[in-house]
Automatic annotation (TrEMBL):
Transmembrane segments: none annotated. SUPFAM superfamilies: NAD(P)-binding Rossmann-fold domains (SSF51735). The lineage of its organism: Bacteria, Bacillati, Actinomycetota, Actinomycetes, Mycobacteriales. This is Dihydrodipicolinate reductase. Keywords: NADP, Oxidoreductase. It comes from Antrihabitans stalactiti. InterPro entries: DAP_DH_C (IPR045760), DapB_N (IPR000846), NAD(P)-bd_dom_sf (IPR036291). Residues 140-342 form the 2,4-diaminopentanoate dehydrogenase C-terminal domain. One of its GO terms (molecular function) is 4-hydroxy-tetrahydrodipicolinate reductase. The keyword Signal does not apply.
Length: 353
């Protein structure tokens, strides 16, 4: 069976998702929504830098809603619940890296829309939506009597090709007070808290655990050359966000991200450690486990501006989930509901993409 797919937005994740759809043997791209007027009407292949593929991008959401399609890869900058409801309401399954990793009380309306239309909404990605929830749950099957679970990212944020986001939303280059008062902790908390709750639920920890959030900053001690310009001494050059699930005085699950503008000239003197950029999943149990995931960060900050493997992996996780999501029962479905979802082999094994 071939599943008909619409791509919603062609930023970093969206463009990589189009490539993954084109390579997937069970998927066919049938439409593409873009936000930018200058992409309206252009061939999608041209937008993502490949050969023309005969599908023109459009800013006309209504035309795409009316189109016959099985699934939408919804990857714009910010989530719009009305658009997601419209997509579900007209009978399209939705996969997205923007939320809905685990349904919450606030999702009752979308759940009802999906049920009514007989379709499924699934949030996935890497962080959150993979490394922070699926992988800890999967590795936990190798332990017993687990007492603590941790998923943590260690990245050089200079490789993130979104300077406006890094400067004005993430507040790098701002004063510590500005960064601490900025929107980032709030923006991140929704998704990462869903990951924490999925771990609690999936592993049988007390679901009433208290979620505690933390944000710390490190400042430059000398001018740091960065993609957002020189960060002067005293201004924010590294940030750490952490979410803990605590039962009484015991922290049972932790998710953290460490984003550094390189690891020199920082106060406190944070660094990426001998293992460098990576993701880690740790479980304290019998036995203890530590899994280090390499390869999802680019080899250099400059390489990340051309192709960021973490963004590609996010897109792949979305696209690979499509057949399973289309076949799932209606509603908002998490990894706790869906079967094992695998990637697909190269058709000829002849070269690497
Ligand atoms: N869960 C995860 O692991 C994970 C990983 C990576 C990213 N994400 C999230 O996924 C989303 C997309 O990431 P990205 O790296 O692809 O971002 P991006 O490169 O900034 O692209 C976002 C796209 O959204 C569209 N857009 C821009 N302004 C918009 C607006 N005002 N309203 C609606 N759409 C707008 C544009 O599409 P067109 O160019 O087509 O016009 C833009 O290219 C972000 O929210 C990001 O935080 C999640």
């Amino acid at each position: 069976m071939t599943y008909r797919v619409i791509q919603w937005a062609t930023g970093g994740v969206g463009a990589a998702a189009v490539r993954a759809v084109l390579r997937h043997p069970d998927l066919e791209l049938v439409g593409c929504w873009v936000h930018s007027d200058d992409k309206n009407g252009r061939d999608v292949g041209e937008i993502i830098g490949t050969e023309p593929i005969g599908i023109n991008a459009t800013t006309d959401a209504a035309a795409l809603l009316a189109m016959d399609a099985d699934c939408v890869v919804y990857a714009p900058l910010m989530p719009d619940k009305k658009v997601v409801a419209d997509l579900l309401g007209c009978g399209k399954n939705v996969v997205t890296p923007l939320g809905w990793f685990l349904p919450t009380d606030r999702d009752a309306r979308l759940e009802a829309v999906a049920q009514e239309a007989g379709v499924t909404l699934h949030g996935t990605g890497i962080d959150p939506g993979g490394i922070t929830d699926l992988f800890p749950l999967m590795f936990s099957a190798l332990t017993s009597a687990a007492t603590f679970v941790r998923a943590e990212e260690f990245s050089d944020i200079r490789s993130y090709n979104a300077p406006d986001v890094v400067r004005w939303i993430m507040q790098f280059g701002a004063t510590p007070a500005e960064a601490m008062a900025g929107p980032m902790l709030g923006l991140l908390t929704g998704g990462f808290t869903q990951s924490l709750r999925m771990i609690l639920q999936g592993m049988g920890f007390d679901r009433s655990a208290e979620i505690r959030t933390h944000q710390d900053v490190a400042v430059a001690t000398a001018p740091i050359d960065s993609p957002i310009g020189v960060i002067e001494p005293g201004l924010v050059a590294a940030q750490r966000f952490q979410w803990d699930a605590a039962i009484g005085d015991k922290t049972v699950a932790r998710i953290a991200v460490n984003w550094l503008m390189g690891d020199e000239n920082l106060e406190p003197a944070w660094d990426l450690g001998a293992a460098g950029e990576r993701f880690e999943v740790e479980i304290k149990g019998d036995p203890d486990m530590l899994v280090t995931i390499k390869g999802l960060q680019p080899e250099t900050p400059e390489a990340g501006w051309l192709r960021n493997p973490g963004i590609v992996a996010t897109a792949n996780h979305l696209v690979n989930s499509i057949p399973y999501v289309c076949d799932a029962a209606p509603g908002i479905k998490s990894y706790l509901d869906l079967p094992l979802m695998a990637g697909r082999a190269h058709p000829t094994l002849s070269d690497r993409p």
